[in-house]
Amino acid sequence: MALFTDNRPEPSPRRARSGWLGWLILSIALVGTLLATLVPSPYIIEQPGPVYDTLGDVEIDGALVPLIQIPVETTYPTEGALDMLTVNVRGNPDSPLSWFEVGAAYFDRSRAIVPVESVYPVGVTVEESAEAGRVQMESSQQEAIAAALSDLDYEFDATLTVAETSEGGPSDGVLAAGDIILTVNGEAFADVAGLRDTIAENGTTTPAVVVFERDDEELTVEITPEMSEGDDPIAIIGVVVGSEYNFPVDVKIQLENVGGPSAGMMFALGIIDKLTPGAINGGNEVAGTGTITATGDVGPIGGIQQKMYGASAAGADFFLAPVENCDEVVDNTPKGLTVYAIDNLNDAIVALASIRGGLSGAGLPSCSDQ
After folding, report:
1. How far apart are the first and last CA of the chain?
2. Among the four 5, 73, 329, 359, which has the fewest Cβ within 10 Å?
3. Sign of the CA dihedral with 139 first, then 141, 147, and 149 last
């Protein structure tokens, strides 16, 4: 008599094959998913970058130096911070991100996923993009110095000089690098913004009359603008123009490996704080961003959400944002950060006065009011 008899039926060949087939399909799916995450994506990631206090020091060639240095003029002690923000970009056409990296960024509100072409247009190399950012930074520093000194009633002269012309553009072969723009349609300009606005108002149906100086000779030409490319096209004549100022005060802005024009407003506020008695921010840590013109107009920037999160992480309680970025600020502001809507340099100074007085924005426009 058998005590241990296994009377279970033998597995059918069909059931055995079904089990192996299921495992095979699952394995293929897992391998496919893994490979898909490693495939290069057409996106880059924007995330909060380093934060720099315009009232503090930075490291240059291994030594700490003031970010804003005014060596001859009388300067005054400062308190707190006036932080300028940066955006760190991960990925580029030469080093694309994987889908796994893009997917991970999707769940982080401090990061943004944007198409590669939005930062690196087709035909523009990574090196060319970096050089353009460097030029924009240098120009923004000059505009910031001009805006600050103008606010403090210093007088100085400005010269608008052609840096380059766009190949095939309206000015190609007509204007050249080094030409000094004297007037357009009979109007002289204190900054590049005024020149740009006049050309935009001219439109593309009639030529703009441009008077310029080349090799000490005054010349007059007519250039018919064309519409620019992009989301907000305007009439342009296809030139890159830089402002050269003869400042009565020597102001040095020392910052390496940071490009773009978005720190202009904070540079201007830092200069004003150093040249005037008392702490313009009341000793608080204030952050902000925005381009600036020599006449003090504050313009929109990119990466506002990443900059707000960078400001919050750095300990700022207050943030100065360009009014034209308000649609990106609402519903995206980190908890505990008070944001002011800024249209010009005077708005920023009034906001700082409110912060200094402990009013927390009372009576000042916020992005939620726009």
Report:
1. 93
2. 5
3. negative
Taking the C-alpha atoms of residue 311 and residue 263, their distance in angstroms, rounded to an integer, is: 13
Amino acid at 255: L
Let me know: does 364 contact 350? Beta carbons within 8 Å.
yes
Give the pairing of strands 63-66 and 235-236: unpaired
Q: Which amino acid is residue 119, in one-letter code?
A: V
Rounded CA-CA distance 291/298 in Å is 5
| Pairing label, strands 318-322, 338-342 | parallel
CB 45 within 8 A of CB 97: yes
pLDDT in tens, 90-129: 988 888 888 888 888 888 889 999 998 888 888 788 888 8
Whole-angstrom distance, CA of residue 267 vs CA of residue 348: 12
Q: Within a 13 Å sphere around the CA of 7, how many CA atoms are in the beta-carbon half?
A: 3
Token pair, residue 67, equals 């970010």
The answer to pTM > 0.85 is no
Under 8 Å between Cβ of 343 and 321: no
C-alpha 70/C-alpha 79 separation (Å) is 17
- Cα–Cα distance for residue pair 319/337, rounded to 1 Å: 7
310: exposed, middle or buried (Cβ count in 10 Å: 0-12, 13-18, 19+): buried
For residues 309 and 291, what is the distance between their CA atoms, to the nearest angstrom?
Answer: 19
User: Are the beta carbons of 208 and 202 closer than 8 angstroms?
Assistant: yes
What's the residue count for the chain? 370
- The Cα 114–Cα 129 span in angstroms is 16
User: Each residue of 178-235: pLDDT tens digit?
Assistant: 999 999 999 998 778 889 899 999 999 999 999 999 999 999 999 999 998 766 789 9
